[in-house]
Amino acid sequence: MTGAPNAAGWPHIYREGSANSSILLMLHGTGSNEQDIAQLAAELDPSAGVLAPRGRTQEKGMLRWFARRGEGLFDVDDVILRAGELAQFVGEAREQYGLGDRQFIAVGFSNGANIALATAMLHADVIDRVITFSGMYPFGDRTTEGDLSGSRFLVLNGRTDPMAPLESVTTVVQELRRQGADVEQVLRDGGHGVASSDLSAAVGWLKRL
Question: Is 23 in a helix, a strand, or coil?
Fold first, then answer.
């Protein structure tokens, strides 16, 4: 599928949330879907609105956000394309649901964390608040040159995660800070996943926004 559909044509979940609350843009991992990731929103902020779109690429029947050439080897051109599509979707959803100036906060796990990072780094005017669970640097050996001085990120990872190596995590944190972002990094023991300590850190970070 090529070309970004409008929000009405892109499978997604939308929940209104409390009046004037933030909207959690929930982005699932490989092999998961919008239904699964939307459930996590209530643990982060039960009053928030929820917008959970479905990844538009597939790998061996599993939903993803962008193509890759192997484990940890991303198709960077596709990353950039899909980040642009997601940014367009968010803008259209804002209009479709009459969300005005309600704040969007991207929350991604694994592949969803990677597309959240890519979208926020390339389209800071659309997404400037991000929580990543088990994400990594999404642009391979390329760098980007954006102004992220108003953006805030919470980056949560396991130190021994083979799917999101610490070297790549360090790169994304360094790049975000180099471009002016406010970055809080939390490392824990263990590997890929969303630990209870990650959730606690995310809830606390959201309350400080």
Answer: strand
